[in-house]
């Protein structure tokens, strides 16, 4: 980069036009400042006209010296519309949004460039409401929007209604199908608001789609888990002569990972090697993620080690791959090494590490990462705050989770759902319902996960009426129809309230297909509540439907045995064997000195046995000192009795 302006003509030929050409060629702030000083030394008459001041301010803004541009233009004696537009952009570049708005309101003349600059400022400041209002004002004042206008406003659209209105305006101005930039922006907008059919229609109406158009529509299909359509788009894109780029390949690879289509993923991997895309960090991260999901962690590590430079995306992918394979020590080690190699962690890095730390109960590592989050200034990021909330909830530290949750100013749906489900995991049903009501009062649009959390809270507290009201609310107001998991929650609500017969009738009325898991929940509730007759009825229904769960066969066999119906009991055992019904296998785990020990109830000897039982011994004596924990001693004693 040059530190001084390019060679200039002599004083006789040093005209404002020649100076403007030199300013356009400046490649550094120092060069622009040096040329500015030369102009002042030659003659201040150069700045009697705003032309040269505009050129100099534009150069300062382009080179990242917006404050210098602001200081220069505020001293111009006879500003014109170009002067004010450059000053407006410079103020926005300096982060002075309110000052820019005051200048905008006081401008005697505004054109499309003026409005576009102000719209960009609102979009960059995440203030979509003001951007949309300004767009309506622009239309009322008769200023014709450009393609750039629609591109900016589309990024601020957050609802389907506003998106359709913007699309209609683009059609009226003849830009919706002729301008590729506008069409691409509309496709991306419809993808964000969830209107896939509209995105596909915009793409099909484009006269000359480009690579960005294909990438945008493939991203829309990917978000709706239409993997086969993404593959078709990719093949059609190549057959029509378009050159795929790194974004195209990474999108298809991500679809292969999500759909677990390893054969197509291997073909994409070969294409990446053939076209040299592995030097692209985005593509490399998609490849690493695909290899980790297909149980080829060693290949992923080899790809990572072959990279010429460290980048955050591949590091995030490999950290997740290590953690997904249970190698938390390697994951945290890579996290530390990447920072030592100059890779600044992103919000996704923290989210990945915190997620897996909480899954393995690594409290010490989780709190250390929390300290690093605060040190690097990520505590206000909603993605990181969501990961921290989830971690502390999984570790049982709901007080810390609530503190982080309250500190987030702009809570999104994911954070609300995380707090709701986190409280449920810790048995705090009433608090979860309070969070649910607060969420609706704040105007957050709930989804199916929210419905599941609210119904689970009702189940935990045995609130039958409130659970039914929530189902009705989601149907009527939010147009969310319950699925099997939601109906299972309603069944749990009825079972908790002792309404076992109503639960059976509800399942038979609402579910079109037999659900072994739902009937199993009712059966367990019957056993817990000691309703033997209802347990026998439910078990018979499950056996008649040829359930492959072992519980109904065991219940029926024990019931027949208690009544001395030996032939029926033997028939049930034979039927269970014919259906190959199996008992659900579960496991327990303990973390000792950052090592995870996993074992099932059938395992007598396992790695780390001595250390495991020492920890259990400490837990046992700690519970002996806590009278309120006496009720759990019998269960824990069984573990010690087990050899």
UniProtKB/TrEMBL annotation:
Q: Where are the PPR repeats?
A: 80-110, 111-145, 311-345, 412-446
The record's GO molecular-function terms, alphabetically, read: RNA binding
Record-linked Gene3D superfamilies = Tetratricopeptide repeat domain
- A biological process term (GO) from this entry: RNA modification
Kindly give the PROSITE patterns that the UniProt entry links to this protein. Answer: PPR (PS51375)
- Entry keywords, A to Z: Repeat, Transit peptide
Pfam families the UniProt entry points to: PPR (PF01535), PPR_2 (PF13041)
User: Cross-referenced PANTHER family, in alphabetical order?
Assistant: PENTACOTRIPEPTIDE-REPEAT REGION OF PRORP DOMAIN-CONTAINING PROTEIN, PENTATRICOPEPTIDE REPEAT-CONTAINING PROTEIN
Q: From the Swiss-Prot or TrEMBL record, give the protein name.
A: Pentatricopeptide repeat-containing protein
């Amino acid at each position: 980069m040059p530190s001084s302006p390019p060679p200039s003509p002599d004083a006789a030929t040093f005209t404002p036009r020649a100076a403007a050409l030199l300013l356009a060629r400046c490649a550094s702030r120092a060069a622009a400042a040096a040329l500015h000083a030369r102009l002042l030394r030659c003659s201040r008459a150069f700045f009697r006209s705003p032309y040269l001041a505009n050129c100099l301010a534009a150069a300062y803004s382009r080179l990242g010296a917006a404050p210098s541009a602001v200081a220069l233009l505020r001293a111009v004696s006879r500003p014109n519309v170009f002067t004010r537009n450059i000053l407006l952009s410079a103020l926005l570049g300096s982060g002075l949004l309110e000052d820019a708005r005051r200048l905008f309101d006081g401008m005697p003349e505004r054109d499309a460039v003026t409005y576009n600059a102000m719209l960009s400022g609102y979009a960059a400041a995440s203030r979509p409401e003001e951007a949309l209002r300004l767009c309506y004002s622009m239309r009322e004042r008769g200023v014709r929007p450009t393609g750039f206008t629609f591109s900016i406003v589309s990024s601020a659209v957050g609802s389907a209604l506003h998106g359709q209105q913007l699309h209609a305006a683009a059609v009226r101005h003849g830009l919706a199908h002729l301008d590729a930039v506008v069409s691409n922006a509309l496709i991306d907008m419809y993808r964000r608001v969830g209107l896939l059919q509209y995105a596909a229609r915009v793409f099909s109406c484009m006269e000359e789609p480009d690579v960005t158009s294909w990438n945008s529509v493939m991203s829309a299909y990917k978000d709706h888990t239409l993997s086969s359509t993404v593959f078709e788009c990719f093949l059609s894109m190549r057959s029509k002569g378009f050159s795929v780029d790194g974004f195209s390949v990474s999108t298809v690879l991500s679809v292969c990972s999500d759909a677990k289509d390893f054969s197509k993923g291997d073909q994409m991997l070969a294409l990446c090697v053939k076209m040299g895309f592995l030097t692209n960090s985005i593509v490399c991260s998609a490849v690493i993620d695909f290899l980790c999901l297909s149980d080829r962690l060693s290949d992923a590590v080899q790809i990572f080690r072959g990279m010429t430079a460290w980048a955050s995306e591949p590091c995030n992918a490999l950290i997740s791959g290590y953690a997904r394979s249970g190698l938390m020590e390697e994951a945290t080690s890579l996290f530390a090494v990447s920072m030592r190699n100059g890779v600044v962690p992103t919000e996704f890095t923290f989210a990945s590490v915190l997620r897996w730390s909480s899954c393995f109960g690594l409290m010490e590592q989780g709190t250390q990462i929390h300290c690093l989050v605060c040190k690097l200034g990520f505590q206000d990021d909603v993605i990181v705050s969501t990961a921290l909330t989830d971690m502390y909830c999984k570790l049982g530290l709901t007080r810390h989770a609530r503190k982080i949750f309250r500190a987030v100013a702009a809570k999104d749906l994911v954070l609300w759902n995380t707090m709701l489900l986190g409280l449920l995991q810790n048995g705090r049903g009433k608090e979860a319902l309070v969070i649910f009501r607060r969420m609706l009062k704040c105007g957050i649009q709930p989804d199916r996960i929210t419905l599941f959390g609210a119904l689970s809270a009702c189940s935990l507290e045995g609130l039958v009426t409130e659970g039914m009201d929530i189902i009705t609310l989601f149907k009527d107001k939010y147009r969310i129809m319950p699925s099997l998991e939601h109906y299972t929650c309603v069944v749990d609500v009825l079972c908790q309230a002792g309404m076992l017969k109503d639960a059976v009738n509800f399942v038979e009325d609402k579910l079109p297909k037999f659900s072994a898991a739902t009937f199993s929940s009712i059966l367990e509730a019957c056993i817990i509540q000691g309703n033997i007759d209802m347990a026998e009825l439910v078990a018979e229904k499950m056996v008649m439907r040829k359930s492959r769960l072992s519980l109904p066969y065991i219940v029926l066999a024990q019931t027949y045995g208690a009544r001395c119906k030996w032939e029926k009991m033997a028939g049930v055992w034979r039927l269970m064997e014919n259906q190959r019904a199996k008992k659900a296998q579960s496991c327990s785990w303990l973390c000792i000195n950052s090592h995870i020990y996993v074992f099932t109830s059938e395992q007598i000897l396992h790695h780390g046995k001595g250390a495991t039982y020492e920890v259990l011994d400490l837990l046992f004596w700690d519970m002996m000192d806590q009278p309120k924990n006496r009720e759990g001693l019998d269960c824990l004693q069984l573990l010690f009795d087990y050899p």
